[in-house]
Request: fold
Amino acid sequence: MTNVKLYKFLLSLKKCFFPAMLACFFSMSLHAQNPALKPVRLQLKWTHAFQFAGYYAALENGYYRDAGLEVEILAGGPTMDVVTQVVSGQADFGVGTSGLLLDYAAGKPIKVLGVKYFMLSPRTYGIDFYGDNFFTSRKMFQKNEALVNAFCAATVRGWKDALENPEGVIDLILKKYPTEMSRDHLRYEAERTVDLMTNLVSPGYMLRGRWEHIADTYIELGMLKKRPDLDDFLLLPDSLMLPAWFKDAVLGMGLVFFVMLTILLYLRNRNLKLKHRFAEQTVQEEQREREERLKRVELQKVLVRDIHDGLGGIAANISFTAVLARNEVDVTSKDKWLDKLERLAREVNMEVRDLMNSLDASTIQWPDLIDSVRRRSDLLFDGKKTMVDFQIEGEPVAEDIGLVEGLSLIRIAGEGMNNVIKYAGRCSYDSENSP
Reply:
């Protein structure tokens, strides 16, 4: 019996002692694998919910462990004073609201490390505050700045994962963190969080100017007397001051600006050239119009002179010849005057025809000018015992001449032939054109 009892005792030791030894061995082994992990505690401001999803994701995905931290996440509640927990050293990090600025102004030695940024509609109502802020004590930051920076970087990575995979974080909360929220409630909270957190900046990103605005709002509400110095309140390293895409965005915007500036300068230069060309064309057109007006005025003068000298002279001759014919008694003499009246009538006809032709043209062709002069000579010397040697020597300088010049030449030729009839008995009339 004794041997049987001893056997049963040893068997019970085997069932209890060896598992305990194995557990102790594996625990020592795991501790030996991560001897440098620094234990830290994160105090939440409320019970476990999706609003802390980034911290859960950073812990679950090993980002804290990669940073050399062994993080314990402590749930909060309605009576939890997170600032006191952190300042007293009972927690190393905490999650608070924008009211942390009031605690800092009241003398609490705290330092805000980053924010869960919201593009929240309360801005419409004149309120533009940050959402949750993770922070630490000034003492913790001064003694362990590298640890604090590592915690910040790991937390930001966790928030990025949580926003990209909210359903996975919901499963994690329901599995590992006690909560009274149902899956539907957590999913609704996740949707609202993803919607409210900005898509333009990285999680953790914050602006000094926004905190200054928050301070000014507290002053307007009578909760602060003056804006406190924010240098010791905010941690704004490069990794938190600017989102990861900021430099690329600035470079891209600079490139777009350069292209737009180049296009604008090109369009401006082209517009100036077009204006200059248009101005030149306008000046040229105005010059042509002035020249045309001068030509028309000159033509009007020539026409008036031709009418006066040509038709007026012929009309005077007709009148004078008619008086002589009326006073003539001899029939033969009357016939002579009547012949002269007939010739004058034909001369009127020719003058009128030339005048009408000149009104329809802006230039006179040389052949037409020569034909007109010859017709005049035929008419003037018809029936006279006078030999007319009519020649134009040389080559014309152009195929046509201006109307004013042409009419002037015709008038000169006509006056020359009239002088031949008046003052010469036998002579020749040469009309010379020098090229």
